[in-house]
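Dear colleague,

As promised, here are the two records you asked about, laid out in our usual form so they can be pasted straight into your sheet.

NAME FIELD: protein one
SEQUENCE, THEN STRUCTURE:
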Amino acid sequence: MGNASAGRDRTAAARRATVALVVLVELLLLTAVLVATRRLPGAQPAAGADRGRVDIADVPEPGPEPAALPGAATGTYTWNCGHNAEGHRNSANVVASPGKVPPQLHAHEYVGNLSTDDDSTDASLAAARTTCDNGDQSTYFWPVLLVRGAGMDGHGQVRTPASVVLTFLGNPVAPVVAMPRFLRAAVGNARALTEPMLATSPTWTCSSTPRRRTDGYPRCPAGDQVLRVFEFPSCWDGRRLDSPDHRAHLVAPGPGGACPHATFPVPRLRMTVAYDVPAGADFVVDAFPDQNYDSRTDHAFFISIVPDRVMAQVVRCLNSGRTCSSET
């Protein structure tokens, strides 16, 4: 019996050693993948890394959109809030850290509400002037774009957008309901390099190939504008204007466009921000110091203060399948 017991012990030990070896190999493989994709917390790109540059010609075009169901909201509504010719920029974030004076870690660019700052409240925003041509007092903001090059310091020069196009879209499965005043929304993750999370990400493209989207900085053909596209989530829980992570109350539709259980489709905001960037220029989004200007840290926020009459017009337009603008 002693020999049998010893044999069982040796077998069990051998099994434990084999399991430990398999786990070690899997961890090493996972670490290699994370480092290769720069998703490992604290990982740094190699010196001179191209920060995820992608030749837009190498990005495939997506397939056709699925056909909308009968009764779905297939319309669009576009309006103009300028392109921040006023130079409204600061490091505040009235969605993620309201009422707090932030350190100067990275700057945001604004269109819409002209008063947005670290001390903004719903009441102060609702009393402020706006750059929008339809009276929309919402605040829309995202990190500034920096152009770096010879003779510049390490931070780079802020590039003002050439244009900002704001569009509300519908839902391919169901009609939309009105977006409530003071609803907060976020897209992207400012700490994506060191703190990955499941979140809808902004994309990049070029003006001559707008259907080709990438999460890397695009190399565009000569004469093209660089485009940043922010597609906000649009399935609301029907109750909250915000949530602790600023995302749980307003989530993205599923692959076919249907909203998750217990959420309702509201108008889907798409912001397309265009830049005239010199050919071959090194451009990056302004970012937290530990994020290495990674393109995947791009993000944007808005607080909806669309006047009730305008929101009613938006909902009618989307649900009736019309193409509308604030100028018509």
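NAME FIELD: protein two
SEQUENCE, THEN STRUCTURE:
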Amino acid sequence: MEQFGKAKDKARQLVTKASKALPLSFRPDKELGPEEVLAAREYIAKYWTKVERFHPKDDESLLGLPKPYLVPSYRERTGFDYNELYYWDSYFMVQGMMDDEHRELVTGVLENLLVLFKRFKVIPNASRTYLTGRSQPPFLTTFIFDVYQNYKPGDAWLKESIAIAEQEYQTVWMGVKKPNERRVHRDLSRYYDINYLHDLAEAESGWDMTPRFERRALNFLPVDLNALLYKYETDFARAARIFDDKRAAAKWDNAAAARQATINDLMWDNGRGLYFDYNYVKKKKGPVSSLATFFPMWAGMVSEDQAASLVKALRKFEHKGGLATTDALPFSQFVLGSLPTQWAYPNGWAPLHFIVVKALERYGYHHDARRIAMKWLKTNMQWFNSDHMFLEKYNVVAPEKPPVKGLYPSQTGFGWTNSVFEAFCRDYVDRPL
């Protein structure tokens, strides 16, 4: 434990000193082998106990939950600490745990999300009273089907869970007035916060902060959010078919097709081969190319030609350490008084790598998926080998340097980084070419 404590202190120093460089550890043309990631995977397996919480009763602002859950990270001796469950973090943190050993924890995390909706009619940003005024990117139906496929809890369980997801879809994401004024233009939705502030709506996106919305998040229809809602609609249709409800399946198929057509009309740029967020107030596409463009591909709503264009556009984001969140350094980083945009070039994030890799696999671009996954694993390993620690995010343009910091202190640990690392190891390191 003393050794881990020293490593943590050293890692914290590194992420605050951008001039500190690490030596490159891996040849770019050589894949990682099982022995090279063994120590990291053992560290991850032991780390989960540090971020597992069980808090069954309300305690001041912290909401009680019936099952144990995971928090994003754990840092000793700091005023910045997590004890609450987060919505989209929870989905990504279980991706490397979809096995028999973690069945109870994974299903319990999902149950907590369902309980939160039943209590508050929203899945909050996190399980704090002061965070119930907004949500986070909606992965509920995907989480439900992951559990349904991996653990086979049965059709009765699926019916009950999907019914709650349908309520979340209708109440939260398709709401047209306070406290859920999200559906605002041509049946597409935006990120929102009950306080009706742009920056807090941007926090609901999970990308806090990013140049995507130009500090006017309430004015934008985000491509990732609406792709996620398309995924909800296709998941509802899938569930209806399992229940042999042909009428409901047709209804959801039609809703998905209508959303797909509108997204393509407003957000697809054929010349650049990318999707862009749409500013419905100004009636034009946003200026920022970002990895959100791959959410429609992940959701299965793009044509083969669009998929080919998106794969070609990977070069806008791909660097030696993986995928940058946007395609260029945002100008806002040079403007006095602007907020730090950590969800931007040159930073790369685990959940976005997971989405892009899954999108590529879905459309048969297996070589590209493997290449990107390996780049990300090597960047993670480079820091782990030096400091025995994983980071919240990485500088993928210069992997030897720390990432650009955001509004809160750069975190070490780190839940979704660890889990996506393990998931990629299972999919690519354990399955060599």
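A couple of things worth noting about protein two: The chain has 14 helices and 15 strands. The radius of gyration is 21 Å.

Best,
R.
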